[in-house]
Amino acid sequence: xxxxxxxxxxxxxxxxxxxxxxxxxxxxxxxxxxxxxxxxxxxxxxxxxxxxxxxxxxxxxxxxxxxxxxxxxxxxxxxxxxxxxxxxxxxxxxxxxxxxxx
Length: 102
Fold this sequence. Notes:
Helix content is about 5%, strand content about 40%. The protein is mainly β.
């Protein structure tokens, strides 16, 4: 498994538009996307496609899918699986395809 992005590099990459932030659009409980066997399929270094489901926010027992807005690689997961989230809270960072943090 790969390590997280170097902390000093992330703000520069965000400013240049090379990293996309996935933020919560509602209040609820965030869960990572899971395979059919129930194991999470979201982890650092995993490649995701645009519009792929990367997680769910559940409110009032209704799960709302969270989609990746770009093709890229997950470089930050500040929220653990099955944690409460607020509106606007950072859920994950995705590096745009073809870029490198180091």
